[in-house]
């Protein structure tokens, strides 16, 4: 037997999780949630390859349908993706004082956030900056209901580094920037750092809003605390807030969003807790209905449990 066949992957890494998939079960292991791991029974591995940036894998699970894994971490499943994609999109877009016309999605290569942005009929330009060309290709093939957004003629796809795209954008280009990233290990690490947030702040119109993947209150409070403090420094005169959604296949069944708005000389900072318009169009031909977001849930999603409010309160403006 070759030495490599005996070699065990390092415990707690993506490689270990993928090894388990071969035995019929996949367990999602990561140093970001040590000592725990969601397990899914895998009926079939539909796709597995290494892109320039990461391991890309699609499996079929009886419990959650088709599942996209990047570096062994669950990005979305057919059964519950709508919770995350609807909330990360409609929280910022329905909160804006004036309806958005120009929206940027950073990451989001699976197309789910694009699908949700495209429900907003007033948006004229939807840009997406995704670093990994393999992700949209795989999404179009294995997640047709999620990749619907790519068909919208308002969408311009750029396979590029999101930071470079944002840095190159003219000041005040976007009404909203949605950062649909993976976790801050690997290619997405820079998307949680101050230079990127400063660049987003610059690229926003006055009164504009960002909404970024903000990890789990149960697992990542120190990371979120640091992120909120950094946002407080960057979005001076604007607002910094945090909301969350429930989703069974993300670690601890919950994921949050950092929502910050840029100061607006014409009025007080945006309070994103109050939706300014009704939920977007749900009945678009060929689209699934809205299945999670509602105006009531919008406001409720900003109400944090006491332990989280205690830790984050000094950095959040709302
Ligand atoms: N722990 C995984 C967090 C993944 C967040 N991004 C998912 C991309 C879905 N469009």
Which class best fits the helix and strand makeup? alpha/beta
**Helix count from the secondary structure assignment:** 10
**Spatial ordering of strands, largest sheet:** 8-7-6-9-10-12-11
Strand content: 25-35%
The helix fraction, in percent, is 25-40%
Distance between the termini: 60 Å
Backbone shape = globular
Q: Which residue ranges are poorly predicted, with pLDDT under 50 across at least 5 consecutive positions?
A: 1-6
Biggest sheet record: 7 strands, mixed
Catalogue the ligands.
Answer: spermidine
Q: N-to-C SSE series?
A: HHEEEEEHEHEHEHEHEHEEHH
Mean pLDDT: 93
> Would you count the extended β strands for me?
12
Compute the CA-based radius of gyration: 19 Å
Quick take:
By secondary structure, the protein is α/β, with parallel strands linked by helices. The chain contains ten helices and twelve strands.
Please specify the SSE layout and strand pairing.
Elements lengths: L2 H4 L7 H8 L3 E3 L11 E12 L4 E7 L3 E6 L2 E5 L3 H15 L6 E6 L4 H6 L7 E6 L3 H9 L12 E5 L2 H7 L5 E7 L13 H10 E10 L7 H14 L4 E8 L7 E8 L33 H6 L5 H7 L6
Bound molecules: spermidine.
The site of spermidine (SPD) has 15 residues, from β5, α3 and α4.
Structural description of this entry:
The protein contains ten helices and twelve strands. The strands form two sheets. A seven-stranded mixed β-sheet has the order 8-7-6-9-10-12-11, sandwiched between helices. Strands 1-2-3-4-5 form a five-stranded antiparallel β-sheet, with helices on both faces. Residues 1-6 have low confidence and may be disordered. With 318 residues, the protein is an alpha/beta fold. The longest helix has 15 residues, at 81-95. The structure holds spermidine. Spermidine binds at residues 73, 75-76, 84-85, 108, 110, 112-113, 180, 182-183, 213, 250-251.
């Amino acid at each position: 037997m070759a030495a490599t066949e005996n070699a065990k992957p390092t415990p707690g890494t993506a490689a270990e999780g993928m090894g388990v998939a071969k035995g019929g079960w996949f367990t999602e292991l990561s140093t970001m949630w040590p000592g725990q791991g969601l397990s899914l029974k895998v009926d079939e591995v539909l796709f597995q390859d290494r892109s320039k940036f990461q391991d890309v894998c699609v499996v079929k699970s009886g419990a959650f349908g088709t599942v996209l894994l990047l570096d062994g971490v669950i990005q979305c499943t057919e059964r519950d993706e709508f919770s995350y994609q609807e909330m990360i999109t409609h929280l910022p877009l329905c909160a804006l004082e004036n309806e958005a016309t120009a929206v940027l999605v950073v990451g989001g290569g699976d197309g789910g956030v694009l699908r949700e942005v495209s429900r907003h009929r007033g948006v004229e330009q939807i840009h997406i900056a995704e670093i990994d060309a393999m992700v949209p290709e795989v999404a179009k093939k294995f997640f047709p209901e999620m990749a619907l957004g790519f068909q919208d003629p308002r969408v311009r796809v750029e396979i590029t580094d999101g930071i470079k795209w944002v840095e190159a954008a003219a000041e005040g280009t976007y009404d909203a920037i949605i950062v649909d990233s993976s976790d801050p290990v690997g290619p997405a690490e820079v998307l949680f750092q101050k230079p990127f947030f400063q660049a987003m702040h610059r690229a926003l119109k006055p009164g504009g809003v960002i909404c970024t993947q903000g990890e789990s209150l149960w697992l990542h409070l120190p990371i979120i605390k640091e992120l909120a403090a950094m946002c407080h420094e960057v979005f001076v005169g604007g607002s910094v807030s945090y909301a969350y959604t429930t989703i069974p296949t993300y670690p601890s069944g919950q994921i949050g969003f950092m929502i910050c708005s840029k100061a607006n000389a014409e009025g007080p900072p945006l309070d994103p807790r109050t939706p300014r318009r009704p939920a977007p169009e749900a009945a678009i031909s060929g689209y699934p209905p809205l299945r999670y977001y509602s105006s009531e849930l919008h406001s409720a999603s900003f109400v944090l449990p006491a332990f989280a409010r205690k830790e984050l309160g000094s950095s959040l403006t709302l």
